[in-house]
Specification:
It is a single chain. With about 1000 residues, this protein is of the alpha/beta class. The protein is built from 43 helices and 15 strands. A five-stranded parallel beta sheet has the order 8-9-10-7-11, sandwiched between helices. Strands 1-2-3 form a three-stranded antiparallel beta sheet, with no helix packed on it.
């Protein structure tokens, strides 16, 4: 019978072992336990634990002392062999606690259930759940431990308790128990005088007990208190309750809505950086549609807020989907052929096979309950419609929420046209068609308008001095109407309020967009403004240099950095040294968005702004020139990466190229459509393959897509196109470049296990090599011949070919290509050579990898070391280098290396006789290969080694034991992490 531990932190720290109290006297050990329980089931790093135990002044050997305290904690808990529930992890420690074994977990679950019930209007169900949750508290959290060493922990726990208390009072009020909670609320406002929520609840309870005067007096009291203590006015929630009281509103249940929990995040949904204003009706309607329909499309004009509405709804409904929410932004996608792969990436798939990406997406979604948000579909609407229809038919648990300026037109689609924000009436006193939720108005009727509220809210951030006054309220109302209630237009207008009055902004708008030569009548129909007009107006507010830069920045996709902007956009009225200042001006005007969280600032244009700039660029007749410069910049970026890879900056380059994939795709797409740019496109694609960017980023299939799409000249002697570079000089597409493209195409097909295609590409490569000075003996051709011999035929002749290719690359200074040849040569020696030759090749490869200071290369050197030990030494000696390779590959975000590393580790473990664990690893490796689409059977030495290991394991285990262990590995969500965690594998 297993031991059960129970932990209690909602009061003094308590531990029970099989129902009996566990005594832990040492203060530091108790503090260690509390720190682990605060993050139960998550690794707490050594650094965090040291800080918890000693604060800012730890002892000299703090790590060793911490280990001692962990041992003492395990002894105190009388942990079984293996240390559970206190486990050691690579970077710290973890304590395991089942949902019912930690009072904090039970409390959190009950509160979550109560909150959900309350939001669904089921107060009768919510109240007992919340009472039960609060009943778990035995006093102040961890009150027997020094609070200054638990900064952030104790306050957070206390805040959760108060939040639950507020919810429980909400439930009581909804059940008509206002009189019952009044005494409690009196004590709470005395204990927490600055917590506005308790004051709001007390005001509501007094009102419902017929004591309206006392309710209003409470508001005056808290207003004075906040002013005296903090110098601030009451918050929006408290002011809303006050307004309702003054209006004697019959429905005051809405007071709870002001305290609604913020929407949860899932699937990489971006965090809301600004207040979400209005849209209550649309949010509710979209949620209703998602409950009734499987495909919902939000349509409307650009800038109306389709994306913001979709993301808000997605965040709110995320808990309703067992597999969460995933977002695919299609705006940067210009090649419809990559739509399936874009969705695959959004789902987190790493399929690098030759099969269509849509098949992998279908297989992934078939049994999942998930919401897929497809944003900005209008430029790919037919292709998106076909994909959505296929996914909907294959995956019954899938819901799709799309945004598009055009409906998808698929069966079962429900369309919601997103309207502009509600507008004030013509007299500035509110909209003439008031919606039901607006009946309980604010103090100023103008604020019933969502458009006005948005303007005021955004102005509070960009123009703190701005106030809605009796003087400017008509101008504000007029401005919102003339901007058609479009959120983007209003936000741009709010920025200008930092330097202009509302009346001056309105004058500029009037001068620019007056459709008739006579003033507009106050009784005429609403001004037919467009988003084009809004962005035109913002454009006019920019300087001439800013406008030029705006237009030129539109050629970028998915973002850009300063170097890219300076190189692509300089010239013809924009000096390179001025780009930074002009860019800063566009950031200030909210035209460009900057993200400074990384080591290089990253800039982006909103999609509507980018499309506007593109149109202006076309009007200037400079689109082709800028597209040429854009593709040349990213050609040179790829070339630089190709020259510098297998060096100290290797990982930096791989990360940078992964970040720049949207721009690289745009450049490749442009080059593929222009005969005079084909060579530039081929050079980009070849260098991305050379740097292993496609491998590192799990986009191997896309690399092959571009190499196949770009029509490199064949071996028939046809004249190669000329490619002008950024300086205006012309360079021909050389036979070397043609052969390089064919070599990389064959190499990718080899790695995918697509042997028929690899054979076809190799034949093309041999034919094209006749145009080279060295003919078929050129290093690239020899390299791919050797790789094909080793991986497809399993032929030891590949050893000599790869060694020859290595020497050839080194002779011409192609360091990175020489490194790849060295790696494959060492690999071939490991598979086909004897011990002396395999060890010698390994030593050469390891020395070169270490000398290069290239981390990706070093990880493969460790893998090769393990492979040689496995095949020519002791299997047990292979385990450490193979695990080290996996750890380092995981650390740099490599998606390709672990596919092979985990498989090889399974061979080694099988050879040591640990066959249950080997079966588990074989299952986990199978899942990685399935996720990336690698066909192991097409890679002969790997397939043969796999068959040998599998046979050894099956011979050792009975069928049920093998199947059980293999299935556990294949079903593990993060098999790589578990494979590296000895303690996580239970045999």
């Amino acid at each position: 019978m297993s031991t059960r531990y129970e932990f209690k932190v909602l009061g003094p720290l308590e531990v029970l072992r099989d129902g009996r109290p566990v005594r832990i006297d040492a203060a530091k050990v108790r503090l260690l336990l509390a720190a682990l329980l605060a993050r139960a089931n998550h690794v707490v790093t050594v650094e965090t634990l040291v800080n918890r135990l000693w604060g800012e002044h730890p002892p000299g050997r703090a790590r060793n002392t911490l280990q001692n305290y962990v041992l003492r904690l395990r002894r105190a808990l009388d942990c079984p062999p293996g240390g559970a529930p206190v486990l050691t992890r690579p970077h710290g420690y973890l304590i395991e606690a089942a949902p019912d074994d930690l009072d904090l977990h039970r409390f959190t679950a009950l509160v979550r259930q109560g909150r959900t019930a309350l939001e669904e209007g089921a107060a009768v169900r919510a109240a007992p759940l919340l009472r039960e949750a609060l009943g778990l508290w035995r006093g102040d959290p961890l009150s027997d431990l020094p609070a200054h060493l638990l900064q952030g922990v104790v306050p957070a726990l206390s805040e959760q308790r108060l939040d639950a208390l507020e919810l429980r009072i909400d439930a009581d009020l909804a059940l008509g128990r206002a009189a019952d909670v009044l005494p409690e609320l009196r004590g709470l406002v005395e204990e927490y005088p600055l917590r506005e929520r308790f004051w709001a609840q007390r005001m509501l309870a007094l009102f419902r007990c017929g004591r309206q005067g006392e309710a209003l007096e409470s508001y005056r009291t808290v207003t004075a208190l906040l002013a005296d203590e903090l110098g601030v006015a009451p918050g929006a929630g408290l002011r809303q309750v006050h307004r309702w009281l003054l209006a004697a509103a019959p429905n005051l249940d809405g007071v709870r809505a002001e305290k609604a929990a913020p929407p949860s995040r899932d699937g990489g949904l971006p965090v809301e950086m600004t207040t979400f204003v209005g849209r209550e009706t649309q949010v509710a309607e979209v949620r209703r549609l998602l409950g009734a329909a499987r495909i919902v499309t939000l349509t409307g004009a650009g800038g109306v807020g389709k994306t913001r509405l979709a993301l808000r709804v997605a965040a709110e409904v995320a808990p309703s989907f067992a597999d969460g929410v995933r977002l695919a932004d299609l705006a940067p996608l210009s090649d419809a052929g990559l739509l399936d792969r874009a969705v695959s990436e959004a789902l987190g798939l790493r399929d690098q096979s030759a099969r269509p990406a849509a098949d992998a997406v279908v297989g992934h979604l078939r049994d999942r309950c998930l919401l897929l948000v497809l944003d900005n579909c209008e430029h790919l609407v037919e292709h998106v419609a076909a994909l959505v229809l296929r996914l909907a038919r294959a995956a019954p648990g899938l819901r799709v929420l799309a945004t598009s300026r055009q409906r998808l037109g698929v069966p079962g689609e429900h369309v919601l046209t997103v309207p502009s924000l509600t507008l004030p009436g013509a007299d500035g006193q509110g909209d003439g068609t008031v919606r039901p939720e607006d009946t309980a108005g604010a103090d100023d009727p103008l604020l019933r308008s969502e458009a006005v509220r948005l303007l005021v809210d955004r102005a509070a951030g960009s123009a703190p001095a701005f106030r809605l006054t009796a003087r400017n309220r008509e101008a504000v109302a007029q401005l919102c109407r003339r901007l058609d209630g479009m959120p983007l237009a209003i936000e741009l207008a709010a920025v200008r309020l930092s330097a202009m009055t509302a009346e001056e902004v309105l004058e500029r708008l009037d001068d620019r967009f007056r459709l008739l030569s006579v003033p507009r009548s106050r009784t005429s129909a609403r001004y037919g403004h467009t988003l084009r007009g809004v962005v035109d107006w913002s454009y006019d507010l920019c300087t001439e240099g800013e406008r030029r830069l705006w237009n030129r920045l539109s050629v970028f996709s998915g973002g850009f950095d300063l170097e890219a902007a300076e190189t692509v956009c300089e010239g013809e009225g924009v000096a390179r040294e001025d780009v930074l200042d002009l860019l800063a001006g566009l950031v200030d005007k909210s035209i460009v968005v900057v993200n400074s969280s990384g080591d290089r600032a990253r800039y982006t244009l909103l999609e509507t702004i980018r499309q506007y700039g593109r149109q202006r660029l076309r009007e200037e007749g400079r689109t082709a020139r800028l597209r040429d410069r854009h593709s040349d910049f990213y050609r040179m970026t790829a070339v630089r990466a190709g020259r510098e890879w297998c060096g100290p900056r290797e990982v930096d380059w791989l990360i940078r190229l992964r970040t720049e994939l949207p721009n690289l795709r745009t450049a490749l797409d442009y080059c593929a459509t222009r005969r005079d740019r084909v060579g530039a496109g081929v050079e980009i694609a070849v260098n991305l393959a050379r740097t292993r960017c496609w491998f590192f980023s799990s986009t191997l299939g896309e690399g092959r897509h571009w190499l196949e799409r770009l029509p490199a000249p064949g071996p028939d002697g046809a004249r190669a196109p000329v490619v002008p570079d950024a300086s205006g000089t012309a360079t021909a597409v050389t036979p070397e470049l043609v052969v390089g493209a064919l070599v990389m195409k064959a190499w990718i097909a080899l790695c995918q296990g697509d042997n028929p295609a690899a054979g076809t590409f190799l034949a093309e490569c041999r034919a094209a090599a006749r145009e080279l000075p060295d003919g078929p003996s050129a290093a690239p051709v020899t390299y791919i011949e050797g790789a094909h011999a080793m991986l497809v035929r399993g032929d030891p002749a590949g050893i000599a070919l790869l060694a020859e290719a290595r020497d050839g690359f080194r002779a011409v200074g192609q360091k990175g290509d020489a490194h790849m040849a060295t790696m494959l040569w060492a690999m071939a020696e490991a598979f086909f050579g004897d011990r002396p030759s395999a060890c010698a090749a390994r030593d050469v490869y390891v020395a070169e990898a270490e000398a290069s200071a290239a981390e990706w290369a070093r990880t493969w050197a460790r893998w090769c070391t393990g492979l040689v030990e496995l095949r020519h030494g002791e299997a047990a000696d292979a385990l450490a280098p193979l695990r080290e390779a996996l750890v380092r590959q995981r650390a740099i975000g490599d998606s390709w290396g672990p596919v092979w590393g985990l498989e090889t580790l399974a061979w080694a473990v099988a050879a040591t006789g640990d066959c249950t664990r080997a079966a588990w690893l074989l299952g986990a490796a199978h899942r990685l290969r399935r996720d990336t689409g690698v066909a192991l059977i097409g890679l002969r030495p790997f397939h043969e080694a796999h068959v040998t290991a599998e046979g050894r394991v099956r011979a050792s285990l009975d069928a049920d034991a093998y199947r059980t262990a293999w299935s556990r590995g294949a079903s593990a969500e993060d098999g790589l992490r578990l494979a590296l965690d000895e303690g996580a594998f239970g045999g």
